[in-house]
Amino acid sequence: MKEPCRSCDRREIDWGGCRCQAMAVTGDARNTDPACELSEWHQAFADVADKESHEPSPPFIYRRVGAPVR
């Protein structure tokens, strides 16, 4: 694990958080989960979440098994 996860008291509880979020936001799955307040990416992650929470939701697309994908 990279820092700050390597020396964090929670490292054996959460194992550095979500690898998918780390990869999506930072481009490196080994980085700290950006949802963690100790992550250097946390503020950028929180800013995106705040911005998107104030925008209208995209239209919902109902799907069913066997339906062609548009």
Explained architecture:
- The protein has three helices and no strands.
- With 70 residues, the protein is mainly alpha-helical.
- The chain has one domain (5-53).
- The chain is elongated.
Question: Helices and strands in order, then pairings?
Answer:
Elements: H1 11-14, H2 19-26, H3 42-53
Mean pLDDT: 87
Count the beta strands: 0
Quaternary structure of the protein? single chain
Low-confidence stretches: none
Which range best describes the helical content: under 10%, 10-25%, 25-40%, 40-55%, 55-70% or over 70%?
25-40%
- Tell me the major beta sheet: none
Beta-strand portion reads under 5%
Domain tally: 1
Distance between the termini: 41 Å
The succession of helices and strands, N to C, reads HHH
General form = elongated
The radius of gyration over CA amounts to: 17 Å
Number of helices: 3
Structural class: mainly alpha
